[in-house]
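Example record

One chain of 293 residues, shown exactly as stored in the release files.
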Amino acid sequence: MHVEEELSVAQAAEKSAPRRQKVIRPVSYSPAIVLRGISELVAYRDLLYTLTIHRINIRYKQSALGLAWAVIQPLALMLVYTIVFSLFTKVPTQGAAYPVFVLAGILPWNFFQTAITTSATGFVTHTNIITKLYFPREILPFSYVLAGVVDLTIGAVILAIVMLWYHIHLTWLALYALPILLIEMCLVSGFSLALSALQVRFRDVGLALPLVFQLWTFASPVVYSLNNVPLRFRGWYIWNPMVGVVENFRRVVVQATAPDRESLLIAIVFAAVLLSGGYLYFKYREATMADII
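Predicted structure tokens for this chain:
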């Protein structure tokens, strides 16, 4: 039912926009396809906006609690992690209350995990749209990413309330949070584009992602700090790009300390490479998606 609704939404958006002609060319790895794709994406920005709003609406449709689930999920995880890692076993938090400490790690991680998981399987669950309408295919994964930003924003409000409860105040270092989250959006977008293109050809991607993220959660400083990682492993550990995002978001928002430059620089490099490389690979596969899916 949701797919049919999205098809009608996409059709309505197409009718309201000027009719465009699309010439499907042979696939290539030329960087020119990226430039054409970006200009085309700008032309279809109204469809991106419409599908993003629709995605937010249907996510909580026929749910008694609605958008409250965006609050309940991180708070429930915060409660579980607090019980396990502050009552049963102690995790050093550099002076911050553990509920605030862990919530500041949960928010960027949940955005990363949810946006990638949903966008990677988006084409398979929207076959009718892909086979019946033409539009820049990257609009689908991007709409999932932007919908995830809404949940992240709601979670950020909850984090602010919890920080006030524990008398933790923001400093000017919190301004770093915006570029850190922008880096994360680039990471998420790059992963989403590459994995959604792979999922069309290999359904194993959607099956493997839940297990990958379960393992990846504990390989990232979500419930603990980078300082808890032994020095002999830290040089390898920070090559996980989410270390630079999660650790530094927590540092600048909750702990009022400067970002760790090395891990943040690694996250920036990964974000730039994944976004450009993922988009190039996606556009290379775009022409044959409707045939394969």
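Notes: The radius of gyration is 20 Å.
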